[in-house]
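Deliverable D4.2, example record:
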Amino acid sequence: MELSAENYYSQEANLEYMSVSQFKDFAGTYGKMQCEFYGMEKLAGRWEDEETTALLVGSYVDAHFEGSMEKFKKEHPALFKKDGGLKADYVKADEIIARIERDEYFMRCMSGQKQVIMTGEMFGTKWKIKMDSYLPGSAIVDLKVMASITDLKWVRDLGYLDFVRYWGYDVQGAVYQKIVELNTGKKLPFFIAAATKEKEPDIRVIKIEQNYLDEALILVEHNIQRILRVKNGEEAPDKCELCDCCRHSRVLKGYISINDLTANI
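Output generated by the structure prediction step:
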């Protein structure tokens, strides 16, 4: 199928193509438990993640910079007052936008072609990507709105991790870089243009160094065949038994031992 802004996130497109978000649904990240069952339920349209206030603030900022604000307003009327202004819970989104727009360097990074779609075949399957700011021949930039840029997360056996690797944004950068290279022949650097929801929004442009991207692409290659077998119905999906999707679908067939409660620690 030919992808467009209208069908990029459709179930049909997700069935035909692999994407970074779909890969992370199945494989997880350091910050999100791996759950193949959750990935399959989302893919089949039987499960949707809740749209929290935090996610909607980020989506509002994304819509502003990609030029799709009118579409966003139509899809999320509950965020707005009768006069068209944002309700109190979402005012922070306008503050973040104002902070970004008064920084010349940040705005230069966001000045590329918006929401550029590319596809390519990698590791035996078709992939799709959609770039926030694509500067041909120069860089790939992805906009992230988050709670904190500098807050580190503890991961067992690894220690403290930055938000980039904790949430798998290195995987995103690796896939985006490779698909652009397959289409253009050029390996471009990948940057995250990050802004926070703090009282005084923080802004940074972060380059993900090539060694991290190379390691992330190896991780994708290592995991993708199992994901494809599950996606294609060749193998049954594993359940994490901890996520909302697993709790929602749980059917008890007996008891568990008290030892099971700490088995994964």
